[in-house]
């Protein structure tokens, strides 16, 4: 079945460090790929998405490129801030007559000043 | 546009009771999905409704049910609550044919 595997957390970095959170997927069709972020006590917010191979999604300094050959969608940011501390979820969606997101296990990110 | 809203935000129930959670999607969105989030199992898909019809269902027992009204608002019901049902329940909506789901703030259910 379809699945998403994320880098194990938690991840702790210093402010202005470079961030990478790895995400790989298994899917039988051609999924759209997403990164969602969850701040404490809140729901999920869409961070970025890509709908086909080689697409790059970007938002708020975060980027991820849809790599079909390596079935990956790694999240990167060049210089993290304390406000980026949150849990990050990689997800895929294949619409076959119905909506359904399949999520990775989440990666907790803490940025220290 | 207003986002997805969920009520109530917090609930405390005891084992054996039942509970109903409500979700109002983004205006114009007709697809509503529900997810359960727990520390152990992560985010799991419960079901999805579109135009009052359940189109997809996850691997949950029959105690979990839902419905959607003609105005696209949705409710989910959990009967005979168990301790393991304690979780954050998230609702998401999407436009017709769109692949992006937008989430509400969730309802945190605690079963004692």
Anisotropy-based shape of chain A: globular
The portion of residues forming beta strands of chain B comes to over 45%
Structural class of chain A: mainly beta
Order of helices and strands of chain B: EEEEEEEEEEE
Which sequence of SSEs, written as H and E, runs from N to C of chain A?
A: EEEEEEEEEEEE
Quaternary structure state of the chains depicted: heterodimer
How much strand of chain A?
A: over 45%
Specify the overall morphology of chain B.
globular
Major sheet size, sense and barrel closure of chain A: 6 strands, mixed
What's the alpha carbon Rg of chain A, rounded to whole Å? 14 Å
Backbone structural class of chain B = mainly beta
Q: Report the average pLDDT across residues of chain A.
A: 93
Taking the sheet with the most strands of chain B, its summary is:
7 strands, mixed
Mean pLDDT of chain B: 95
Total number of strands of chain A: 12
Query: Quick one: how many beta strands of chain B?
Result: 11
Number of helices of chain A: 0
What Rg of chain B, in angstroms, do the CA atoms define? 13 Å
Unreliable segments of 5+ consecutive residues of chain B: none
How far apart are the first and last residues' alpha carbons of chain A, in Å? 41 Å
Descriptive terms for the model:
heterodimer; A: about 110 residues; mainly beta; 6-stranded mixed β-sheet; B: about 110 residues; 7-stranded mixed β-sheet; 4-stranded antiparallel β-sheet; 11 strands; about 0% helix
Short description:
The complex is a heterodimer of chains A (113) and B (112). With 113 residues, chain A is an all-beta fold. Chain A is built from no helices and 12 strands.
């Amino acid at each position: 079945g379809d699945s998403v595997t994320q880098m194990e957390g938690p991840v702790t970095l210093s402010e202005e460090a470079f961030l990478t959170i790895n995400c790989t997927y298994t899917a039988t069709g051609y999924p759209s790929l997403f990164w969602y972020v969850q701040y404490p006590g809140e729901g999920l917010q869409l961070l970025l998405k890509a709908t086909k191979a080689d697409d790059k999604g970007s938002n708020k300094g975060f980027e991820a490129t849809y790599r079909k050959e390596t079935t990956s969608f790694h999240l990167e940011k060049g210089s993290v801030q304390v406000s980026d501390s949150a849990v990050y979820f990689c997800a895929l969606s294949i619409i076959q007559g119905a909506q359904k997101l399949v999520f990775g296990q989440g990666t907790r990110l803490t940025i220290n000043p | 546009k207003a986002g997805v809203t969920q009520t109530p935000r917090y609930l405390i129930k005891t084992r054996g009771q039942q509970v109903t959670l409500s979700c109002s999607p983004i205006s114009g969105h007709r697809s509503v999905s529900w997810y359960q989030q727990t520390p152990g199992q992560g985010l799991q898909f419960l079901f999805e409704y579109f135009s009052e019809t359940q189109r997809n269902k996850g691997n949950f027992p029959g105690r979990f049910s839902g419905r959607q009204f003609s105005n696209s608002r949705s409710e989910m019901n959990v009967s005979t609550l168990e301790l393991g049902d304690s979780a954050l329940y998230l609702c998401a909506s999407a436009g017709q044919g769109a692949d992006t789901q937008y989430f509400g703030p969730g309802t945190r259910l605690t079963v004692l």
